[in-house]
Design a protein that fits this description.
Blueprint lengths: L2 E4 L9 H10 L5 E6 L11 H7 L7 E6 L7 H7 L3 E5 L6 H10 L3 E6 L17 E5 L15 H14 L4 E5 L4 H10 L3 E4 L1 H4 L4 H10 L1
Parallel strand pairs: 1-8, 2-3, 3-4, 4-5, 5-6, 6-7, 7-8
Helix pairs in contact: 2-3, 6-8
The structure holds D-xylitol-5-phosphate and zinc ion.
D-xylitol-5-phosphate binds next to strand 2, strand 8 and helix 7.
């Protein structure tokens, strides 16, 4: 069954603990945490302090998506704060192999992310080293944007490469996922769907999660 990772970017931060517990009760599989640096993407959000604060509020894995240019200096802090998966952008890491292994050296799972405008070729050499491949279906920086459907063939491509290389990474998609676009992603081979506004924008989070999953 497809996993659902609600993005807390669209949660009410004044009651973040309740928001996280609400989606956990509603059937979420991961909690997706978006860390933005104001350089790689035009927005500033969450740092390790918040990850540390939310860690005791949930048993779910914390899936931390770093939108940080040259993230290496921050990776140990996010790991110590309680991240279970740390993903970095290929576009933001000049020494991607070093960065992926720095994440693994902290004892957490490592993911690689590509933007809609980046081809799968850019991450081919690292696919055997990662636990997760995250394909952005919006240009990162903000919640509530529209799904970019030209990314769908890349889901099929990374699914085929997984077979070919005989490796086991999860395929995650992020941006503009709702009940309609979720179906397209699942058909294309996605294993984990990130959704922010489509879950936290609804009052009944259980129903929102179910309607994304059931498609
Ligand atoms: C975008 C973030 C996403 C965002 C998704 O840069 O990486 O995780 O929160 O939000 P929705 O689901 O509203 O597009
Ligand atoms: Zn994200």
């Amino acid at each position: 069954m497809v996993k659902i990772a609600p993005s807390i970017l669209s949660a009410d931060f004044s009651i973040l603990k309740e928001e996280i517990q609400d989606v956990e009760k509603g059937g979420a599989d991961y909690i997706h945490v978006d860390a933005m640096d104001g350089h790689f993407v035009p927005n500033l959000t969450i740092g390790p302090l918040i990850v540390d604060a939310i860690r005791p509020t949930t048993k779910l894995p914390l899936d931390v998506h770093l939108m940080i240019q040259n993230p290496d200096p921050y990776i140990p802090d996010f790991a110590k704060a309680g991240a279970d998966i740390i993903s970095v952008h290929q576009e933001a890491c000049p020494h991607l192999h070093r960065t992926i292994h720095l994440i693994k050296d902290q004892g957490v799972k490592a993911g690689v992310v590509i933007n809609p405008g980046t081809s799968v070729d850019a991450i081919k050499p690292i696919l055997s080293d990662v636990d997760l491949v995250l394909l952005m279906t919006v240009n990162p920086g903000f919640g509530g944007q529209s799904f970019i459907s030209s990314v769908l063939p890349k889901m099929k491509e990374v699914a085929q490469l997984r077979e070919l290389l005989d490796v086991h990474y999860e395929i995650e998609v992020d941006g503009g996922v709702n009940a309609t676009t979720a179906k397209l992603c699942m058909e294309a081979g996605a294993d984990v769907l990130v959704a922010g506004s489509a879950i936290f924008g609804q009052t009944d989070r259980q129903q929102a999660i179910q309607s994304i999953r059931s498609k």
